[in-house]
Design a protein that fits this description.
Elements (H helix, E strand, L loop, with lengths): L1 H6 L16 E7 L6 E8 L2 E8 L5 E7 L2 E7 L10 H4 L8 E14 L5 E14 L4 E12 L9 E7 L6 H12 L11 E3 L6 H6 L6
Parallel strand pairs: 9-10
Antiparallel strand pairs: 1-6, 2-3, 3-4, 4-5, 6-7, 7-8, 8-9
């Protein structure tokens, strides 16, 4: 948990029409402001720990992981997720690169300034092998999550935007959040992969570009 834990002290999819521009707003919170709480840490050399960080309007980031990368979810409370539930509750962008971690800024897409949030955008940075595994390439991805209460199926990632290969990745992530997150069905619909081959939401939908 290099970036977050060190900071805290250490188409099968049915897509919605875009949220009206005048109704969309971005709010921001940070995980490096001393408000996060580490629940578990250094249980073994390959495990960095588990932390909860307060976010926007009652939402709480839960994040844990080890040397191979982090996984996260958003909940309406800071109650630790039981170990046997973590594999189904946490969302792990493992396909976006090994040894990855989340950045310290979270962008929340809300209905109007101060309104309820329907999506969260969080940057994930990992590395991928190149040249037959002889070297590694840094990869930055904007993950877009639909925000759902636990009783409504929980939150899930709905799109991955390869920021390393795209200009205006932040704008693309907001478009994906506004158009996809409101009606995305967690556990059924598949997350879009937006990259140099499918460089915007429409191209990814039309090309059926999904994260594996």
């Amino acid at each position: 948990m290099r970036k977050i834990l060190l900071a805290v002290g250490l188409l099968t999819c049915v897509f919605a029409a875009p949220v009206a521009a005048q109704d969309s707003f971005s709010a921001y919170t940070r995980t490096d402001n001393g408000n996060c709480t580490v629940l578990e840490e250094e249980m073994d050399p390959a495990y960095y720990g588990y932390a909860v960080c307060p976010g926007y309007d009652g939402w709480v980031l839960h994040v844990d992981g080890g040397e191979h990368g982090q996984r996260s979810t958003f909940r309406m409370d800071a109650v630790p997720i039981p170990e046997d539930q973590k594999p189904t509750v946490f969302n792990y962008p493992f396909s976006r690169g090994n040894f990855g971690s989340f950045y310290s800024v979270i962008e929340w897409r809300t209905r109007g300034e101060g309104g309820p949030a329907y999506a969260a955008i969080h940057r994930y940075s990992g590395v991928r092998p190149i040249e037959g595994g002889l070297s590694w390439r840094q990869v930055s991805t904007l993950t877009v999550s639909a925000l759902r209460a636990a009783e409504a199926g929980g939150t899930c990632m709905v799109a991955h935007i390869e920021a390393s290969t795209l200009n205006h990745a932040n704008e693309i992530a907001r478009d994906a959040a506004d158009r996809i997150a409101p009606t995305f069905t967690c556990g059924t619909d598949r997350a879009l992969l937006i990259n140099a081959d499918y460089p915007d939401v429409d191209a990814a939908i039309n090309g059926r570009s999904y994260d594996r």
